[in-house]
Amino acid sequence: MRVSQGLVQLPMYDWPEFTQATNRLWTSIRDHFSKAGIDAPTSLDRMSPPAETWQSPNLLLSQTCGLPLVADLSGKVKVLGSFAYQEIEPAGTYHSVIISHKNDNELERCLEGKRAVINGDDSYSGCLALKCFVADNGSGESPFASVLVSGGHRDSLCAVASGSADIAAIDCVSWHLAKQCEPAIKSLKVIAHTESRPGLPLITHRNASVQEISVMRDALAGAVDDLDEKSCAMLGIQSFVACDESDYAPIAEDLARCGSLSLSVSPFLSGCAD
Questions:
Q1: Beta strands, E only, 91-187
Q2: Check whether domain 3-88+198-253 has CATH 3.20.20.80, yes or no
Q3: Angle, vertex CA 202, rays to CA 197 and CA 205, nearest 5
Q4: Which pLDDT tens digit goes with each residue over 235-259?
Q5: Top-level class of domain 93-196+257-270
C-alpha cells in the first residue's frame, strides 16, 4: 500500500517550550508511516489554522478536541485514536482540573459571584467540562459574575494567577505541561477534577479506507513505543490507544445535557487582562 497525503498537524499541545519534543514525536510517526508505505511531509504544518484543515481532503493526520468532533466533525473525518498519557487512567482518557488562586479559600465552598475564565466555547476541557462541573455540583444556572474568554488553557491559568479570574477548567495534559515551564502555576491550586472522558482524537480524512486506518493505527502505536524517554516524559505520552468516533458518545451526552447551560448572565468577555 502506498498512500500520499499532504497535511499533518499536532496542534493541541504544541507549546513553544515543547516544540522540539513535538518535532521528535512527529519524526517517529513519519518514520513509521514511511515503513508502512505512507508518504508524509518532513515537517508539521504550524501555519494553517487547525479548524480550517480538519475537513481537508488532503489531511493525513491532525488532532482535534472531542467537542468539535461530536458537534461539527461527525461523519466528516475518521478517528484513529488517542494518545494515552502518563498517570492518567483509564488509558486513552483525560480530564480537567478545576483551579483557583492558592489564596482563595472560598471557592471550594461556593461558586456564586466568582469570575470564570474559559479558553473558548468550542472547548470540551475548558468550557463544557466546567459547565458539567457546575451542573453536577448543584450551583444552578449562571453562577458566575462574569466569564472571560482567554483563547487558550495557558492564558486561562495565567488569568487566574494574575487575579483577572477566579476559576478555570484546565485540561490535565496542559496542566502537566504548565508544571514544567509556566511560572504562574506557583500561584494556583487544584480544587477538583472533572469526570474522565476520551482523550483528544487523532483524525484523518473522511475517505480513508479501513485498511489505511488500520495501518496508520499500527504505525502510531509503534511510533510512540519508539519515542525517546525524554520526549515521552516532557509530553507526558505513554502509548497510543485506537478508538472510533462512537467512543466519544460520552462527550455528545455531556453536550446534550449541559451544552445550553449559561455560566453567567453577563456576555462573555474577550481577552485576558495582565
A1: 93-94, 96-101, 115-118, 146-149, 167-171
A2: no
A3: 130
A4: 999 999 999 999 999 999 999 999 9
A5: alpha beta
